[in-house]
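hey team, just a heads up i'm posting the complex here instead of the shared drive bc the drive is being weird again. everything in one block, sequence lines first with there labels, then the predicted structure for the whole assembly after. its two chains so it's a bit long, scroll down
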Amino acid sequence: MMAHAVNIKDYMQNIGIEARKASRLMASADTNQKNIALKAIANAILRESSALLAANQQDLDAAKANGLDSAMLDRLTLTEKSISSMVEGLTQIANLADPIGEMSDFKYMPSGIQVGKMRVPLGVIGIIYEARPNVTVDAAGLCIKSGNAAILRGGSEALHCNQALAKLVQEGLAVANLPATGVQVIETTDRAAVGELITMKAYVDVIVPRGGKGLIERVSNEARIPVIKHLDGNCHVYVDDDADFDKALRIVENSKTQRLGTCNTAESLLIARSVAGTMLPKIADMLSANGIEIRGCAETCALVKQAKVATNEDFYTEYLAAIISCKVVENLDEAIAHINTHSSQHTESIVTENYTKARRFLREVDSSSVMVNASTRFADGFEYGLGAEIGISTDKLHARGPVGLEGLTSLKYIVLGDGQVRA
Amino acid sequence: MMAHAVNIKDYMQNIGIEARKASRLMASADTNQKNIALKAIANAILRESSALLAANQQDLDAAKANGLDSAMLDRLTLTEKSISSMVEGLTQIANLADPIGEMSDFKYMPSGIQVGKMRVPLGVIGIIYEARPNVTVDAAGLCIKSGNAAILRGGSEALHCNQALAKLVQEGLAVANLPATGVQVIETTDRAAVGELITMKAYVDVIVPRGGKGLIERVSNEARIPVIKHLDGNCHVYVDDDADFDKALRIVENSKTQRLGTCNTAESLLIARSVAGTMLPKIADMLSANGIEIRGCAETCALVKQAKVATNEDFYTEYLAAIISCKVVENLDEAIAHINTHSSQHTESIVTENYTKARRFLREVDSSSVMVNASTRFADGFEYGLGAEIGISTDKLHARGPVGLEGLTSLKYIVLGDGQVRA
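-- predicted structure starts here --
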């Protein structure tokens, strides 16, 4: 733990300087070295699982004493099971192909030079998260494999557990002959440390906030460094005139009810007028049977007796709860216009058998994931085959949608010549 | 011209709202429509070339009256030749493949969904530039082809010419049935307009500043929107122990002397100690014969009689002038360490016949372009086959190195299913 007398700015600058130095070594680590580190961390976590549970208990006791709510306590709690899934996650990351050094697109130019690209780490990644201690291990694993140095700032309520995990991460780095400063955990709960982290342009290349909306908004408003963030997930399912009813029913059910609190859960249902009369009452009954409240437009309310009247605000809302907004639309044009106005550009799905309309929906809907005849719940790094996920980006620049190892990398140009000069 | 009474904030917000609306139509424009617009703009420019020259003369007269220096007047001047190269540039952009809607990487997942990516426009691009009126046309052309809406803010000294060009751009958009608001030129010279443009998060997706360091620093410090920027080009050539002397001489000469004022000009020469005694005096004589002043480390000064002593500051400096810094290094390790500490991460080249050292240099040098046996002057969108260039990015996130059409796009995920839901 840092001495209390140390100035936060100096403390953070020093972490930044060390991270920048370590990033050179992390970037040039070979694939085998990185995998050895990941496996050594996994083994250390298994070996120290009772110490980790004890450290977590310290955090839990303090959290209870401070009156944290049960949802927060739940996220904070480490169990045998969550320890094995951390270990499993590290093993999966070790098994992924190394993105670093990958070369592509080499072409000869008329001048005789050959130009291509090489995938490289971003450098130093700052990750700011809340209660869940498993993020410490997931984030460290992804940064190590992608050749980046990491500065991790976990929630103050998980400090003991995070410090215990940090030691094991650093032990694993040492086994692979990588610098302990490749992954640093900020050892102060002072909020000023976050302010420093998100403005140390010289030492940090990108910030990834993981947590609630309050955290993400604070970070993205105050950061002077690029942020890979995701804000709301106000996801839509549009049931088209040419929808297959069984698919529509199944996809709406899964998108809305499989899990209520995730960002890829559907929050709004649109349905074409020509099929609303036949399909909507049945879909609504299925939703009601799942305990979902329906807030609809006037036409919805006329067709669905249990529906409540939606306000304009409802159509902009990510409920993360057992509520769905519902609107009858004239056609595909109105559906696309409604989505592009109201959605948070996370994930939208059309249910249709019509080729031309499917193709238009894919092209014209401006969201990070656009789907045909599939549940919005698939918008996820694991389901997309990325192998791991550091978050889902609703930004357009750099990474859009689920962000895996590749999102923590960049491409530089490579030029191979035989002495060519420019005419 | 906007009425003087209009509040700048309202004026800019309105431009933003119109740009956001237009961006939907620009994004869904098909390839043919975009090419028709580009060719119509080219024809309009040819047709109106005398009116353009007259508008430019108005700007030049005002600039002279305001005492602008000759370099600035030079950049401001439109000629028959610069008009034909604008027309040529538009034709080249029309001939490039359309990046929008390109689909790639489709793979089936174990769940049965097929996941891939589609290339999409960024949305609204704000471009801020200085005297050169040709940027108005280049930037408009690149934004149109990449399906983006553009808000252009040229230098106040080029206002008449930019307004005349804007009309022709809008005429071309109309011919292709695209909205005139697809490319808007800010019609006020009030600097507050830039302040609004770079903070209108809701309406602008990315800012591209093109101009001197002062402009770029102001924009990147004050922007609340991502910026694609390039700062210095302190580029290095490293002559390795295993360099071929003729290639070294040719590459150093071309990198330093072909043009002095470009960002990809070499500003620093590193040479391995084992060959410095034989090669450096000859390279230095070639540089001196080209009128280049050499500022060297102590060893350089011992070997090269005409060299002056370099300060530490020299090794961090982008001269953009007939000066080069020079340092003798022990080996590749020292060369890479020196570059990664002193360079601006723009472009670096190694001259070597050694495979292993070339490979290490490519991997370990952290710059946007890394080269073997080629002149740094090749770091350019045209030379890399991008067909056009909106700038060179020294950032790592999103675009790195020369930025062409692809740098003005993003990738969204596409999911194709047959009714799949998540288990």
